[in-house]
Amino acid sequence: MPSASPTESKTTPNPPADLRAALTALGMRFVAQGLDDFIARATKNRLGPVQTLEEMARVESLERGRKSTERRLGRSHLGRFKPMADFDWTWPKSVDREAVERVLALGFLERAENVVLVSPQGLGKTMIAKNAAYAAVMAGQSALFVSASELLLDLSKQETARALERRLRHYGRPHVLAIDEIGYLSYDNHAADLLFQVVSRRYERRPIVMTTNLAFADWSTVFPNAACATALIDRITHHSEIITIEGDSYRKREAEQAKKARRRGKNGSA
Questions:
Q1: For the chain, how many structural domains are there in total?
Q2: pLDDT of 2 strictly over 70
Q3: Are residues 102 and 29 in the same domain?
Q4: Partner of 8 for a Cys bridge, out of 4, 87, 202, 225, CB 3.0 to 4.6 A?
Q5: Is pLDDT at 264 greater than 80 in this prediction?
């Protein structure tokens, strides 16, 4: 039987343990964890030294980017939401599609402009806000989504000035802060002052995406007798994209469609 050629008898080398440890120490944990497979691919593809290093850097960079995106998504508190591909542009009686698409393209983020989405309940303003925050995360930025009631409850329960300062820094840190559902509840003067502090810290530095069911002229019902209400609105609306959506609730339409479907099902089974 003829002896095997040098090429045929060549096997994939086993990486030394100290190489794996060295890569881990350098922070290249993903390459270190999959070192056996990486060397096998490099050997199979006959990569040269420079190509091997380039591939190593590429693989590690991709994995770090994926992990970073996962962390930002987890910290954003976005939860589940519908993508904008599911938005029915034909349902609202009035919506500025170009303005919404400008927001989703993140131009407001570069200019540190606020975005205010104004509409009755059930027309998709929260959906747009979440998609804007998601777009920021996918673009490598940080985002935080929180309802107005959650934010103000969190701030109001801080018992010391130091604790309050820490939480204010928390809300001032993300590149995009989305505050949902302002206008559904009324708040006292202290809550208005707390929201004003959040808005002031981000003013002309980092934008806020805000949803509300009320026109600004009606915000007196949200913060009755609050001395800072006018200044609060002024800070929010200065350098801002205000998008008003008019029409009937999507959810009401879906409920009616589901009711009709159930009736058809009953009639069909009768």
A1: 2
A2: no
A3: no
A4: 4
A5: no
pLDDT tens, residue by residue, 53-62 = 898 899 888 8
In a domain, 264, yes or no: no
Among residues 191, 185, 179, which one has the least CA distance to residue 222? 185
- Full residue range of the structural domain in which residue 70 is found: 12-75
**Four-residue CA torsion sign, 242, 248, 249, 254:** negative
Q: Which of 75, 109, 129 is the last residue of a domain?
A: 75
| Residue 263, in any domain of the structure | no
Question: Look-up: residue for tokens 């490099």?
Answer: 42
> Which amino acid, one-letter code, is at 129?
A
Same domain assignment for residues 24 and 68:
yes
The length of the chain, given as a count of residues: 270
The Cα 133–Cα 178 span in angstroms is: 7
